[in-house]
Design a protein that fits this description.
eight-stranded antiparallel beta sheet; Glucose Permease (Domain IIA); globular; 1 helix; mainly beta; single chain; 2 domains
C-alpha cells in the first residue's frame, strides 16, 4: 500500500504493518520528513523500488542530547553495537535516494530491489527507547546528502482523510504485556482514509492521532487544522496545534499525566495501522513497572 511520497518517489508498506510519521523524538519526524514502518517480525521489506548505491555501518552511542526530552531511564536497555544505513536510488526518480536505517541489510551495493522484497534483518538500535519495537526508519533525500540526520524531503501522506466525529472513550481490553509496555485494544478505533487509529477532535475537525503523548512533547492529528486549535481526546485537552500542513497538523502537548490500572505512566504511544488491528501502547516510567498487572480496563 502507498503511504507517502515526495519528489516523485513513493513509499510503500504492507497491509499488516504499523506505521508512524510523528511518534518519535527525533527531528526528522518532528519536521514531517520520515516514516517508521513496523513489520511485526524480524525481517525488513523494501518500501521502494530501486538500486542499492551505498551501505554504511557505524557505531552509535546513546542519544544523550534527548535526555532533556526523555530521561536516562528511557534508554535503559542494551542495543546493538552497530547501526546501518542502506541507501537506495529510486527507480521513479533517479535524482533522489531513500535512506533506511535500523536494519542489517541482506542486499549488497549495486543490487536492484523491488517493493516488499526482503532486504534486511531488523535490529534493536541504541537510538531506540526501551519500549520501541523493531522497525525501519525511512527518508527521501538528495544523493549528495544521503547520510545526515537532518535534511530529508518533506513527506506527503497518501490516503489521509478527515475522520468522522465520534465519541472517544479510552476504554479497552488488555491484550499484551511485558516489561516494556502494555497493549490495549480500544473500543473507539476508527478508519480515516487508508489508516486505522485513535480519533481526536481539533477545532471543527476530527482526525487520527499519531504520536507519543505527552512524553515526546508533541504529536500530530492527520487533518489540516488551524494553528492554536485545541486537540481533544476523550473530552480531555492533550495539546494545541502549532503547525499545520495540508494532510496533518502538529500539536505541542500540554502538561498532563496518564494513569491505568493504578500505575502512573509516561503516556500513550499512538500509531497508525493499515488493517483494523490497531492497538495503543501504555508506556511505563521504567522497565518492569507493568509486571504483576494483568487485569483488563
Amino acid at each position: 500500500m502507498k503511504i507517502a511520497e515526495s519528489c516523485g518517489v513513493t513509499l510503500h508498506a504492507p497491509k499488516h504493518a504499523r506505521i508512524t510519521f510523528f511518534n518519535s523524538p527525533y527531528p526528522a519526524h518532528r519536521e514531517k520528513k520520515a516514516v517508521d514502518i513496523y513489520f511485526g517480525d524480524e525481517i525488513a521489506l523494501s518500501p521502494v523500488e530501486g538500486k542499492v548505491v551505498d551501505i554504511r555501518r557505524f557505531e552509535v552511542a546513546k542519544p544523550a542530547y534527548f535526555f532533556k526530552v526523555l530521561d536516562r531511564d528511557a534508554f535503559n536497555f542494551k542495543g546493538e553495537k552497530y547501526e546501518y544505513a542502506t541507501i537506495i536510488r529510486s527507480s521513479e526518480n533517479p535524482n533522489k535516494v531513500v535512506k533506511i536505517i535500523h536494519m542489517k541489510p541482506f542486499v549488497k551495493k549495486g543490487e536492484k530491489v523491488e517493493v516488499f522484497q526482503e532486504i534486511g534483518e531488523l535490529i534493536r538500535s541504541k537510538l531506540f527507547t526501551f519500549w520501541t519495537g523493531k522497525h525501519i526508519h525511512v527518508e527521501i533525500r538528495n544523493p549528495n546528502d544521503a547520510l545526515r540526520a537532518r535534511g530529508g524531503e518533506e513527506l506527503k501522506i497518501i490516503g489521509c482523510k478527515e475522520a468522522k466525529k465520534i465519541k472517544v472513550e479510552l476504554k479497552g481490553r488488555l491484550v499484551y504485556i511485558n516489561e516494556n509496555l502494555a497493549k490495549f485494544a480500544l473500543e473507539s478505533i476508527t478508519k480515516a482514509g487508508s489508516f486505522y487509529g485513535v480519533p481526536a477532535l481539533a477545532g471543527k475537525k476530527a482526525g487520527l492521532i499519531d504520536g507519543g503523548i505527552p512524553y515526546n512533547g508533541y504529536g500530530a492529528i492527520l487533518t489540516k487544522v488551524e494553528e492554536g486549535s485545541q486537540v481533544i481526546i476523550a473530552n480531555f485537552e492533550v495539546g494545541r496545534i502549532i503547525k499545520s500542513y495540508e494532510d496533518a497538523s502538529i500539536f505541542a502537548c500540554r502538561g498532563f499525566r496518564v494513569k491505568a490500572l493504578g500505575l502512573k505512566l509516561r503516556g500513550l504511544s499512538l500509531t497508525l495501522s493499515l488493517q483494523n488491528n490497531c492497538k495503543i501502547s501504555l508506556i511505563p516510567n521504567k522497565r518492569g513497572d507493568w509486571f504483576g498487572r494483568n487485569k483488563t480496563s
